[in-house]
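pipeline/complex-builder :: batch 7 item 3
reading input block
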Amino acid sequence: GEDVEQSLFLSVREGDSSVINCTYTDSSSTYLYWYKQEPGAGLQLLTYIFSNMDMKQDQRLTVLLNKKDKHLSLRIADTQTGDSAIYFCAETPYSSASKIIFGSGTRLSIRP
Amino acid sequence: ETGVTQTPRHLVMGMTNKKSLKCEQHLGHNAMYWYKQSAKKPLELMFVYNFKEQTENNSVPSRFSPECPNSSHLFLHLHTLQPEDSALYLCASSQEETSGRHEQFFGPGTRLTVL
């Protein structure tokens, strides 16, 4: 089946790097995504990676994909208070291109 | 105009009431979605509409009734709800690309409280 798992909470100090991890079960996933949800708002796509890539960098964000272990991570460099949010890992399964399977979300909190 | 709008933003209703949630997308997308977000199950897909046709119903109770009159509008009609239906209801839209990449654009949600 299709399942995406994440840890629920992460706390980091302002200025440090945050690493949010995710595992998924569908080895034929085509695209994997990171979405961000700020308080009182809907989800917003942060970045995505195609399944034949192993790394993607976009300013402070680095996505690493280990297809063998079905592990996806999001690194946020120089974490700021504005990065406080819930981060959702998600995948498009090969079996259903019109659907996205979301993880449970990781709540990132920043301490001074 | 914001991409995906939802009204109302907050709704309090009794178990015997009938109400509707509205979603509108201004992005020219062909697919729309309803999700339920609660503390127990963070993000549950409820319904998917493609070109106004329902393509997915994720075993949602019949007290939730979706309606998609055109590809820009999506409604969720509510009746005889239970307190456990209290949650944030999120609408999203997407346009599937030939590459298979699939980005969903979300509205801000309707915070529903059932008394």
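note: DSSP finds no helices and eleven strands in chain A.
queue -> next item
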